[in-house]
Amino acid sequence: MGTDAYETADSLVLEPISRGRASSCRIHTARSDFTVHSLGSAAAFGNIIAGVILTYMRPFVIGDRVKIADTIGDVMEKTLLVTRVHTIKNVDVTIPNTMVLGSHLVNFSACVRNQGVILHTSVAIGYTAPWQIVHELLSDAARMTAHILPKPEPFVLQTSLNDLYVTYELSASTDQPNRMATIYTVCIRTFRTSSMRPVSKSCRRYVQKPGNL
Asked: What is the pLDDT of residues 4-24, one digit of tens each?
């Protein structure tokens, strides 16, 4: 049994020659390598094109607090291929530019340069608690929290009426979106502390749980 060789447009094909019937085993190494390289080049080229578009659009700059897909953090580096984000968990996330361009992107820092960004969080309070007191306590907690702007003033909305409690949403403006995790924590802690004051003694048993932190 010998081998016979011939050239094709894609590669050099070797066919074993057997007595009685021809083998169906063929080696297409060149074609496989070309396919792998083509796929890798296409992905890299797509990221480069996306990087050029992002550079032209300028949806964020280095240092901005952004949300890309499910990742929230500060932009640390932006290249033609990837964007690197440093999260509040002290983790560096590398995101391909095609994903950045194709995902829903939120820039918390962009509005700060003009008028500040509104942060919001929710608490669940029982129906027997006077809503006026709840509004006052939440607003006061926001005003006493560092990095909350006095103007526009914090405001409270009742967003849902559940079976056992009402959901109140507190909104307040800040010019420090990079500190949003700390602002949320301090604000809700201040609210729970202030609700123990004698002036709001009737609300003690109505505070059920903080939410959306």
From this structure: 444 444 444 444 544 444 444
pTM of the model: 0.60
- Other beta carbons within 10 Å of 181: 12
Averaged over 51-78, what is the pLDDT?
Answer: 89
Cα distance between residue 17 and residue 2, in whole Å: 5
Neighbours of 110 (CB within 10 A): 17
> CB of 142 within 8 A of CB of 172?
yes
Contact 120, 145 (CB under 8 A): no
Domains of the chain: 3-55 (no CATH), 58-108 (2.30.30.60), 113-211 (3.30.70.100)
CB 134 within 8 A of CB 168: yes
Q: What CA–CA distance (Å, rounded) separates 168 from 211? A: 10
pLDDT at 98 over 70: yes
* Residues ≥6 apart with Cβ < 8 Å to 147: 174, 175, 176, 179, 182, 183
